[in-house]
Design a protein that fits this description.
The complex is a heterodimer of chains A (790) and B (191). Chain A is mostly helical and 790 residues long. Chain A contains 38 helices and no strands. The termini of chain A are far apart. Chain B is built from 3 helices and 11 strands. With 191 residues, chain B is α/β, with parallel strands linked by helices. Classes of the chains: A mainly alpha (790), B alpha/beta (191). Chains A and B meet through helix 25, helix 27, helix 29, helix 31 and helix 35 of A and helix 3 of B. Chain B: InterPro entries: Calcineurin-like_PHP_lpxH, Metallo-depent_PP-like, Phosphodiesterase_MJ0936/Vps29, Vps29. Chain B: Belongs to the VPS29 family. Chain B: Keywords: Protein transport, Transport. Chain B: It comes from Nelumbo nucifera (Sacred lotus).
């Protein structure tokens, strides 16, 4: 029969309520006049409304609640009556005359409650009677509510330990029996609902069943509240009986709900002690039951229990919780062949969380869980499912967070295997998580084996996987990614030079597979790591025994050379030039003249062939000059060649002012201010004069092209350089030359009156102040400056 | 009382992964009025933005490894009674030479010149003014200086006086030193 819609139900409900209230009114009247017979008659009529089949569970509940309220009042009345001497046995007999069975049973339960309270008979006997009689109602909805009523009125009257209704010994068992029976019958009724009605209404039925589930579950709750149910009773009686019903009912909805209920309602220590039994039921359940969620819930609860206090941990070991859970999961996954990947992984995540909480020191367990996961995933292609990959990231992040130490995670042989199943994007996400964990915890990775393992894990960041080009990754994101790899390289360190060299070689091997986009990020940190090692070895030169020591500065320089060369594929000439110069300086400090010379050669080649931008050239030439100025290792020939080159290129810069500055910078190449440094005054002055010529040319050019004056400031700069070398004692610098320069500048500036250059003026002014200051110093300095008039 | 943070040569991520944790915990936003950075951060996002979050008035000059090539070669600014000049220092040859730096100071016409490049903390006073090198805030490798300790400088400018506090991380402990400078109220007459 197709239902006519909600309005009809509302109508029927309203009718039912009206009828109920009508009879309740008369019932109360009868109670007021102490008319037992009539009160029962009207109450029976009132209860007849509950005989309806037309209401959905939701609506039936509303009707039921009103009846319930009325029955409460009835019960209270009869309670009073029995105190006043009315015979409860007579009452009990009286209600059995009610015409229809449903009202009769409600009344029996009500009076039964009063009977128990009166204590004229043992609670257990009455309860047994009632629970049996309720079998008379086999209609699911009506039966469920009836038994629910029974449960409610009997709740506080169970013959529990310490209760006033406790009879002689072993009545707890009777209480348990009672509840178990009620539960069993209720479950049967509930399951029966599934099979009523046409197939097409299955969904509606399941929804209705869902609404009623708490009625059934309540019984388990009651069981958990019974004081007398201790671990032994739970283990021996309660759990087996409940599970028996759960398994035998063969109903998916019931099984799922009840398993979950058991886990939620009973204490965690009970679960721990009955783990085998509980898990044993799982494979016996219907194959469509979402057992993985149930198991996950169980493991989560146990994890929390383990975390709650350290004292409970030995219990876990004693019951071999891990093994049992692990086996159970294995069986479930095996049995449910169609389980999607995300389901299996979720289970493993729960198991892993559990393992990390309970057995953090058992890396073999952790590895086992990962291994089982690998096994489940094997044979399948890379995961596409977003939820599944999310779960795998959770799986892999858990050990990192727990151990705060990537090194421990690296010991898990199955860890990289799990990562292999991630798609490229997620693999990179995981790699970043790993790097962040290292940076956050300041962990140093100190052997080349671990470095190798680590780079295997993060290979998604190091190179393009699957030969496919870099995905459409946002440029900013890519930079961030590569910079985090760069920072990581600084965390790879070992005091022992041999091991450190191995680490450097391992890193080098990996980053060279990164391709031109990645090299500019990853090469510099490696170079500087290696330079630090060189410096460390510098001091140890004399101690080397034996020929075959791999870690020598020379070998490392070879490595450095080859690595910087790789930058040519990017191409990154400016960066490479800087790195070559760094190496040159380091080689200088190691007394390796040919090596230093070679690095300079490479730098010059890059300058000549690759650096075309004029601004870049200016910086580059200054870096070359600055580095060269500090070199003390070169013999005369080598030095001459390099300085010649440097000055040559300085003079060939595009803009005149740049030329001028570079050339006078070169003057320092011929004057090194320490004891045995060279001091070639002649060549210094040559440079300065050359610079002066260039400045003059710049002046003239500016006059011609712009009709204005050129950069006066250049002259002031050169003046300052003259002063510098004058003070250092360069015999080729005469005070007359300085004087001339001062006059020249003054003239130029006067000529500039039309368009004065304030910064040049200020510079000149401060330079003159300086000269004045030096004159006033007295002593040798004062003498030097004496002849200069400002 | 104006606080100016001077630091530089962090070389992140080429030579160092990050600022030392002890420094990071000391540098909180809102306490400093100006930041001057000698250069070689090197990466914009992490370092530049982080420093900017400490204080919005941030000045940077270009170091030879900086990712952002648009930083200026030199910069001058006035704070209170002092004129400050900022330059990375790789442009001044010989590197670290005081007299050459003094020339730059005269050129920029400043009382306090802040430069870096050598990764070694220095604070010189000479007739023209003060030259400060805040060293490397991360203790980065330098071809010029061996055994670099992480360091930075905090200047407290008050009227004609500046107190230079240098913070150095030595063996895991932060050590502080201070140097006082007073500027003579000279009459700088322009020509």
């Amino acid at each position: 029969m197709i239902s006519d819609g909600i309005e009809d139900e509302e109508k029927w409900l309203a009718e039912g309520i009206a009828g109920l209230q009508h009879n309740a009114f008369y019932m109360h009247r009868a109670l007021d006049s102490n008319n037992h017979r009539d009160s029962l008659k009207y109450s029976a009529q009132m209860l007849s409304e509950l005989r309806t089949s037309r209401l959905s569970p939701h609506k039936y509940y509303e009707l039921y609640m009103r009846a319930f309220d009325e029955l409460r009042k009835l019960e209270m009345f009869f309670n009073e009556e029995t105190k006043r001497g009315c015979s409860i046995i007579d009452l009990y007999e009286l209600v059995q005359h009610a015409g229809n069975i449903l009202p009769r049973l409600y009344l029996l339960c009500t009076v039964g409650s009063v009977y128990i309270k009166s204590k004229e008979a043992p609670a257990k006997d009455i309860l047994k009677d009632l629970v049996e009689m309720c079998k008379g109602i086999q209609h699911p909805v009506r039966g469920l509510f009836l038994r629910s009523y029974l449960s409610q009125v009997s709740r506080d009257k169970l013959p529990d330990i310490g209760s006033e209704y406790e009879g002689d010994a072993d009545t707890v068992m009777d209480a348990v029996e009672f509840v178990l029976q009620n539960f069993t019958e209720m479950n049967k009724l509930w399951v029966r609902m599934q099979h009523q009605g046409p197939v097409r209404e299955k969904e509606k039925r399941e929804k209705e069943r869902s609404e009623l589930r708490d009625l059934v579950g309540k019984n388990l709750h009651v069981l958990s509240q019974i004081e007398g149910v201790d671990l032994d009773m739970y283990k021996d009686t309660v759990l087996p009986r409940v599970l028996e019903q759960v398994v035998n009912c063969k109903d998916e909805l019931a099984q799922y709900y009840l398993m979950d209920c058991i886990i939620q309602v009973f204490p965690d220590e009970y679960h721990l002690q009955t783990l085998e039994t509980l898990l044993g039921a799982c494979p016996q359940l219907q194959s469509t039951v979402d057992i993985k969620t149930v198991l996950s819930q169980l493991m989560d609860r146990l994890s929390n229990y383990a975390a709650s206090s350290a004292e409970v941990l030995p219990e876990f070991l004693q019951v071999e919780a891990f093994t049992k859970l692990s086996n159970a999961i294995g069986k479930v996954i095996e049995a449910q062949v169609d389980m999607p990947a995300v389901g299996a992984i979720t289970l493993y995540v729960s198991l892993l969380t559990f393992t990390l909480r309970v057995h953090p020191d058992r890396l073999d367990y952790v590895d086992q869980v990962l291994g089982a996961c690998v096994k489940k995933l094997s044979g399948k292609a890379r995961l596409e499912d977003g939820k599944a990959t999310k779960q795998i990231v959770a799986l892999l992040s858990a050990p990192l967070e727990k151990y705060n130490d990537i090194v421990t995670a690296l010991e898990l042989s199955n860890y990289p295997r799990v990562m292999d199943y991630l798609d490229n994007a997620t693999n990179k996400v995981m790699a970043v998580v790993i790097i962040q964990s290292i940076m956050k915890n300041n962990t140093y990775i100190s052997t080349s084996d671990k470095v190798e393992a680590l780079f295997e894990l993060i290979k998604g960041l190091i190179k393009d996987l699957d030969g496919s080009p870099v995905d459409e990754l946002d440029e900013e994101d890519f930079k961030e990614e590569q910079n985090s790899v760069a920072r990581l390289i600084h965390m790879l360190y070992n005091d022992d030079p041999e091991e450190m060299l191995k680490i450097i070689c391992t890193v080098r091997k990996h980053i060279l597979t990164g391709g031109p986009k990645r090299l500019p990020f990853t090469v510099p940190p490696l170079i500087f790591s290696a330079l630090k090692l060189v410096r460390q070895l510098q001091g140890q030169d004399g101690d080397v025994v034996g020929e075959d020591v791999p870690a020598t500065p020379k070998k490392i320089f070879q490595l450095l050379h080859q690595t910087i060369e790789a930058l040519s594929s990017v191409p990154a000439p400016e960066l490479a030039l800087r790195l070559y110069l760094q190496c040159a300086e380091a080689a200088n400090d190691c007394d390796l003249e040919p090596v230093a010379y070679e690095f300079f050669t490479q730098a010059f080649i890059l300058y000549e062939e690759e650096i075309a931008d004029s601004k870049a050239q200016v910086t580059a030439i200054h870096l070359i000059i600055g580095t060269l100025q500090r070199m003390n290792i070169f013999g005369v020939e080598n030095r001459d060649t390099l300085t010649h080159k440097a000055t040559g290129y300085s003079a060939k810069l595009l803009k005149k002012p740049d030329q001028c500055r570079a050339v006078y910078a070169c003057s320092h190449l011929f004057w090194v201010d320490d004891q045995d440094g060279m001091k070639d005054g002649e060549r210094v002055i040559l440079c300065l004069k050359r610079a002066l010529r260039i400045a003059n040319a710049a002046q003239q050019m500016a006059n011609v092209t712009r009709g204005s004056n050129g950069p006066v400031t250049l002259f002031v700069e050169i003046l300052n350089k003259y002063l510098y070398f004058f003070e250092k004692g360069n015999p080729q610098i005469y005070s007359a030359a300085i004087q001339d320069l001062v006059e020249l500048i003054k003239t130029e500036m006067q000529g500039d009156m039309a368009t004065p250059d304030p910064s040049a003026n200020a510079f000149f002014a401060s330079s003159l102040r300086y000269i004045q200051f030096q004159k006033q110093k007295g002593g040798i300095m004062g003498e030097k400056y004496e002849s200069i008039k400002v | 009382m104006v606080l100016v943070l001077a630091l530089g040569d962090l070389h992140i991520p080429h030579r160092a992964p990050d600022l030392p944790a002890k420094f990071k915990s000391m540098l909180v936003p809102g306490k400093i009025q100006h930041i001057i950075c000698t250069g070689n951060l090197c990466i914009k996002q992490e370092v530049h933005d982080y420093l900017k979050s400490l204080c919005p008035d941030m000045h940077v000059t270009r170091g030879e490894y900086d990712e952002d090539a648009r930083y200026p070669e030199t910069k001058t600014l006035t704070i209170g009674q002092f004129k400050l000049g900022l330059c990375h220092g790789h442009q001044v040859i010989p590197w670290g030479d005081l007299d050459s730096l003094a020339m730059l100071q005269r050129q920029l016409d400043v009382d306090i010149l802040v430069t870096g490049h050598t990764h070694q903390f220095k604070a010189y006073k000479h007739e023209g003014g003060v030259v400060i090198n805040p060293g490397s805030a991360t203790g980065a490798y330098s071809s010029i200086t061996y055994d670099v300790n992480p360091s930075f400088v905090l200047m407290d400018i008050d009227g004609l006086r500046v107190v230079v506090y240098v913070y150095e991380l030595i063996d895991g402990e932060v050590k502080v030193d201070k140097i006082d400078f007073k500027k003579t109220a000279t009459a700088h007459s322009a020509h």
